[in-house]
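Help!! Second protein's tokens look totally different from the first
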Amino acid sequence: MKKDLKRKRSIALVPEYVFESYLYVRPEFLKSLGIRALLIDIDNTLAPYEQDLPDENIINWFSEMKKAGISCALISNNDHTRVELFNSLLSLPAYAKSGKPGKKTLLRAMRDMGVDETVTAGLGDQLLTDTLAVHKLGMISIIVPPINDKRTLFFRFKRRIERPFMIKYYKRKAKANKK
């Protein structure tokens, strides 16, 4: 029993997909997985912390998602001022102080969007918050490398914890590619 529990916990931090950038997460890919909604982190996933507003690439990417029928919401642990300013040009459902890896805000966002976890995925840059939050709901996790990672001791520690799980992801991917 303890061995199974440990295995489940370690899998909870291994994402299903990793892309070089959010720009490579295409509507066609999401639709092929049956995904109709995407819960998206802002900081270091779409833009660095210092970037107050979405750039043209971000705006165009969201426009493509909308045209393809993929609903999107911003789910951030950052404060309301940051989230509202970033969202001012996007007008998406947006949730600040989300408490990830807690699942309460994710459930609220899906309810507000009229979807459930069977057709929703999460996109973020951190395994300990973004991946763990969506995995608590049995959803697909898509991870991108951080755009401009903070170099504080806390963030370096978090990235060090995440490293073995990213190694596990790449080993699993290599094994699948051999088949």
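Here's the second one for comparison:
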Amino acid sequence: MDINSNKYTYIFSIIMVIVVAALLSYTALSLKAPQEANIELEKKQEILLSINVKVEREAAGKAFDKYIKQSLVIQGGKVLEKPTVPAFSIDMASTVAKPGPERELPLYVAEVDGKEFYILPVRGKGLWGPVWGNVAMEKDGNTVYGVTFGHKGETPGLGAEISLPIFTDQFKGKKISEGTEFVSIEVRKGEATTAHQVNGISGGTITSVGVQDMLKDCLAPYADYFLSLSNAPKDSAL
């Protein structure tokens, strides 16, 4: 075949496209398992960080098994005996798109130094993309112990500060309910003055509102669960 002909050029191009596509597919498939493993470990890292357990990614699996005593799925304020998927496998992006009563939500029961905590995953929308996090609650189901927040593309120095201690440290000790009424936590423009408020991010108003809306939307079903616990007999199990 004449290597200078158009036919040769077309055939050579087609072969190269097929070869490169095959190599890319093989590489993607071979890397899929370790990528998924890393994502799982990072997720466990973030969950543990909400209860102030700081570990390297490689150690997150063992630490998660040590500190997380139960992984529950709740719906409508009650624990599901037969959830659609296990708690850790729940896709929060899909879940929060559903009406509140239809959501199957993960809830982790942790124990650190003899103290029990509940960890509540949350997800919402920021300025440029999704925001998410974990809210750790004291045993009373009302007092925040710690939070972690993450984002996909918020502005550095502005909305991206939701993941920094200057913002997250404000949540410790805040309350999500007033008596039996769920009130959530307001991310406020200006000085926080109550147990249900934190200061927003200067210059990051839309992201701050996104976090506020996320908390209000995602914490309400958990508040119903904690209310059911407070009304349950003292010797009843989770």
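Reply: Different proteins will give different token patterns, so don't panic. The first strand starts at residue 68 and ends at 75.
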